[in-house]
Automatic annotation (TrEMBL):
The lineage of its organism: Bacteria, Bacillati, Bacillota, Bacilli, Bacillales. Keywords: Membrane, Transmembrane, Transmembrane helix. The chain crosses the membrane at residues 120-137, 157-180, 200-219, 225-245, 257-278. It comes from the Bacteria. This is Uncharacterized protein.
Length: 288
């Protein structure tokens, strides 16, 4: 049977095809009849769904790829500053606890408290250097009034004060550890001894910061009081370190704070008595 070369419809007679209306041209021999309509329908039926699915998956993949670096970059950008602020807040909370109860502030086996005590140690060294530097400047300025003043740089004070402070604190901690090791068969570790001792240096460290402030503001009359408390705090840190290793519980006011307040009252009374004695002796020998 002959077929139309245009639409592959069977020949129905006449000069024109009864299906497409074009002049009838017979299909050449050797060509096979293939119907394109079903394939077209399948492509139209499947292509939109597959393309839509592939488009959705590719779009979702692009969103995941583009979103992941943004989250990582944000965390990397905010993590250092947020961590520093959080660490600063934690340290100030630690300072409040230590200034209130220095005897019980440090606990054995708590790495967090040991890291905070290490920060206290660094601040103690820093304020020690600043206090010595500012005091040296005040003294050299006094010589300047007589015409032979001189200047002392910060680096000149830095290394001697650091070396002396490091050696003194290391020797004190090592001596206490050796004494405890000799007397006690199960002594505390050197980490705990040094951590407790530096914890008691928190109040002298705060007093050093106040002394620096007084030196900057020119309040020289208040510096003797802070210096007296600093010296007493350094001296009493040794016995109270040994005390805290054997007395974990307390009642009432912290023993370290109690002792420092007692010393401050005695210092004030002694200062008043000395001033009265000096003024009376001055009036006695210089009546006019």
């Amino acid at each position: 049977m002959q077929q139309c070369a245009h639409c592959k419809t069977a020949y129905q007679g006449g000069k024109f095809c009864g299906n497409c209306g074009k002049p009838f041209e017979p299909l050449e021999n050797g060509e096979t009849f293939t119907t394109e309509l079903p394939s077209t329908i399948n492509e139209q039926a499947t292509s939109p769904a597959m393309s839509e699915q592939s488009h959705f998956s590719s779009q979702q993949h692009r969103q995941v790829i583009t979103a992941t670096p943004a989250v990582v970059n944000t965390d990397n950008a905010q993590r250092p500053s947020g961590k520093f602020i959080e660490s600063t807040k934690d340290y100030f909370e630690y300072l409040k606890v230590v200034c209130k109860e220095p005897t019980n502030a440090f606990r054995e086996g708590m790495d967090d408290n040991y890291s905070k005590a290490r920060n206290t140690f660094l601040l103690f060294l820093l304020f020690s250097v600043l206090t010595v530097h500012l005091a040296t400047q005040k003294i050299t300025d006094m010589f300047g009034f007589f015409g032979f003043g001189f200047d002392v740089s910060f680096m000149t004070v830095l290394f001697p004060v650091l070396i002396v402070s490091l050696l003194a604190i290391t020797i004190v901690c090592a001596t206490m550890f050796l004494l405890l090791k000799i007397r006690n068969p199960d002594p505390p570790s050197f980490r705990e001894v040094s951590g407790r001792f530096v914890t008691f240096l928190t109040i002298p460290m705060v007093l050093l910061a106040v002394t620096c402030l007084f030196l900057l503001l020119g309040l020289g009359s208040l510096i003797p009081f802070t210096n007296a408390l600093i010296l007493f705090g350094l001296a009493s840190s040794i016995p109270f370190t040994l005390y805290s290793l054997h007395h974990e519980k307390k009642l009432g006011l912290d023993p370290f704070i109690h002792t420092m307040l007692t010393y401050l009252i005695l210092f004030l009374l002694l200062r008043v008595v000395v001033n009265q004695f000096i003024s009376s002796m001055t009036n006695m020998f210089m009546p006019f």
